[in-house]
Amino acid sequence: MGDLNRRHELLHGLTPGLIRQSLEAKEFAYCPYSRFRVGAALLAHDGKVFTGCNIENACYNLGICAERTAISKAVSEGYRDFKAIAISSDLCEQFISPCGGCRQFMREFGGSWVVYLSKPDGSYVEMTVEELLPESFGPEDLKMKRVHAIPNEF
Ligand code: THU
User: Fold this and answer.
1) Domain-located, residue 132
2) Distance 143 CA to ligand 1 centre (A)
3) pLDDT for position 42
4) pLDDT above 70: percentage of residues in the chain
5) What's the CATH code of the domain at 100?
6) Ligand 1 centre from 48 Cα, in Å?
7) pLDDT tens digits, one per residue of 30-67
8) Best probe residue, ligand 1, of 38, 51, 88 (max atoms within 8 Å of C-beta)
9) Domain assignment of residue 70, given as a range
10) 151 lies in a domain?
11) Side-chain-facing half-sphere of 106: CA atoms under 13 Å
12) Which residues neighbour 90 within 8 Å (Cβ) at sequence distance 6 or greater?
């Protein structure tokens, strides 16, 4: 068995638990305006899980998504290497799909890790960050050759 298959098998063993944790995190959603609850559970390289929920605000545009809450918690504790994130909502006929902003936020930390789009019954669709956000812009692009070198005093 190849390394990639083995890695996927190990991950699949953890998937139902990760989805359950995202469903539990959804219970803490603070969403008095949309009444749309979202939960996330982020699996780091060493097995640690960071959960998150959406947190809305009376100043509507300041609300933060569940995925970004979880990633911010992880990064603020020194974690930048992620294996997977599970996302949950109350939608029963659709798999919850991350917003464009969250896709970009995930992509900052690589394109080949896994996103589980789930339903409340625990069923899920598995995609990679790269599949959700193809042809993306990321940290590497800032290091590429440019036509003009902008001086510091610009
Ligand atoms: N929301 C998330 O937390 N994650 C998503 O992937 C989609 C949308 C939140 C943002 C807002 O609080 C509510 O769901 C309705 O858009």
Assistant:
1) yes
2) 32
3) 98
4) 94
5) 3.40.140.10
6) 24
7) 999 999 999 999 999 999 999 999 999 999 999 999 99
8) 38
9) 2-143
10) no
11) 35
12) 26, 36, 37, 120
**Bridge partners of 53?**
39
Active-site amino acid positions: 67
| 36 CA → ligand 1 middle, Å | 7
Atom 9 of ligand 1 has which residue's CA nearest to it? 65
Neighbours of 17 (CB within 10 A): 13
| Distance from C-alpha of 39 to C-alpha of 54, rounded to nearest angstrom | 7
Question: Is position 148 within any domain?
Answer: no
Counted domains in the chain: 1
Compute CA distances 38 → 20, 35, 72, 82, 141, whole Å: 13, 10, 16, 20, 31
Tokens 């109350």 locate to: 90
User: Does residue 150 lie within any of the structural domains?
Assistant: no
Q: Which residues line ligand 1 (CB under 6 A)?
A: 31, 34, 36, 38, 54, 56, 63, 65-67, 87, 96, 98-99, 102
Distance from Cα 137 to the centre of ligand 1, integer Å: 22
- Which amino acid type is present at position 153? E
Closest residue by CA, ligand 1 atom 3? 65
